Amino acid sequence: MNGLYQSDYYVWAHRQAGLLRSGDFAQLDLEHLAAEVLDLAQQQCNELSWHVNKLLHYFLKSALYPERVSGRWLSKLYRHRRWIRKLVHEMPTMAPLLDGYINTAYAKTAERLTAKARLPRSAFPEQLAYTKEQLLEQDFMPWTTISPTSTTPTR
Fold it and tell me: Of 32, 55, 87, 152, most Cβ neighbours within 10 A?
């Protein structure tokens, strides 16, 4: 079974699925199967990180250029927010990873956008100026401000 994993992953995966369904556990390629299961979990983490990166890209780009906000940018903001909430809802233990992903993505995105726009890095604060909740709220946009006495966004 080891050779099949190396030579034809697709056939190996289907064979493993068949063995699992039939209850023939003695024939399973446990070493590779365990690695694949962990890889699936890592892929979910990577997907969450990717959506956070994309969300921050469009979010900060919109903050930097509010006059250029288009339906396409808004669509991207909505889509990435929706995917982040979906992933965290389906896998709640990934929720604590969000803060780290947001901080990392913010630093990289702010650096990239300011370099591209030929602005000093100080064009964005050192830390994200919005809360995680604001970042993920469908109706909150980066050009929106929060008044000190209200939690409702105003323009």
Answer: 55
Residue-wise pLDDT tens digits, 13-24: 999 999 999 999
CA of 113: how far to CAs of 43, 72, 103, 143, 144, in Å?
A: 27, 18, 15, 16, 20
Strands 145-146 and 153-154: antiparallel
pLDDT attached to residue 142: 81
Residues 6+ apart with CB under 8 A from 84: 48, 51, 52, 55, 98, 136
Q: Which residues are 153's β-sheet partners?
A: 146
pTM of the model: 0.81
Terminal CA-CA length for the chain: 62
Query: pLDDT digits over 112-148, tens only?
Result: 999 998 989 888 888 898 999 999 998 888 876 533 3
As a whole number of angstroms, the distance between CA 100 and CA 73 comes to 24
Which token pair is 117? 């726009």
Angle (CA) 40-41-45 rounded to 5° is 115
The Cα 8–Cα 131 span in angstroms is 46
Give CA–CA dist 25/31, Å, rounded: 13
